[in-house]
Amino acid sequence: MTPALKKADYVVLAAPLTNGTRGMVDASVLAAMKPGARLINVGRGGLVDEEALIDHLAAGRLAGAALDVFGQEPLPAESPLWDMPGVMISPHTAGETTGEREALVEVFLDNLTRHIEGRPLRNVVDKRRGYVVDETRPV
Q1: SS (H, E, C) 57-119
Q2: How far apart are CA 34 and CA 9, in angstroms?
Q3: Catalytic: 73?
Q4: Would you call the peptide bond into 74 cis, given omega within 30 degrees of 0 as the criterion?
Q5: Domain range spanning residue 68?
Q6: Is the residue at 50 inside a domain?
Q7: Is 38 part of a structural domain of the chain?
Q8: 50 near 30, Cβ under 8 Å?
Q9: Rounded (5°) CA angle 107-110-114
Q10: CB 75 within 8 A of CB 82
Q11: Which of 38, 44, 50, 56 is catalytic?
Q12: Paired strand residues for 64
């Protein structure tokens, strides 16, 4: 466990979901966090053991969490996270920025031209590195 984890007021997750990152924040990591710290997850839902997070929040060990992603999306209505004090929930939109859609269209049109011309595409995900597209399927 990193010493920084024990000192941090906020722990921010922005990692992709791979075999190596699935469940990276489990009960042991949450227990190692500074009492009163907050967890922010804008990466992938599968990074966090949600049951362990709920337990740590309910016990008052953590002060709160800001969650943009979940193991199951949308977050089920019966999840205790909805009503827990100190928990902020957003609808998987943390990555959206002003001008994002225009930029996506620009990359798509450029890639379409590149594909037609037989040139390499931009922003290709190397699936051999283990990035997961569908979090509900096993890696």
Answers
A1: HHCCCCCEEEECCCCCCCCCCCCHHHHCCCEEECCCCCCCCCCHHHHHHHHHHHHHHHHHHCC
A2: 7
A3: yes
A4: yes
A5: 3-95
A6: yes
A7: yes
A8: no
A9: 130
A10: yes
A11: 44
A12: 38
| Total domain count, the chain | 1
**pLDDT exceeds cutoff 80 at 96:** no
The amino acid occupying position 122 is R
pTM here is 0.81
Say if 100 falls within a structural domain.
no
Quote the tokens at residue 8. Answer: 């941090």
CATH number at residue 83: 3.40.50.720
pLDDT over threshold 50, residue 8: yes
Tens digits of residue pLDDT in 75-88: 999 999 999 999 99
Q: What's the confidence (pLDDT) of residue 139?
A: 43
Give the pLDDT of residue 22.
93
pLDDT tens, residue by residue, 11-39: 999 999 988 899 999 999 999 999 999 99
Single-letter code of the amino acid located at 78 = E
* pLDDT exceeds 60 at position 136: no
- Please check whether residue 90 lies inside any domain of the structure: yes
92 annotated active-site: yes
Q: Which two tokens stand for residue 81?
A: 């996270």
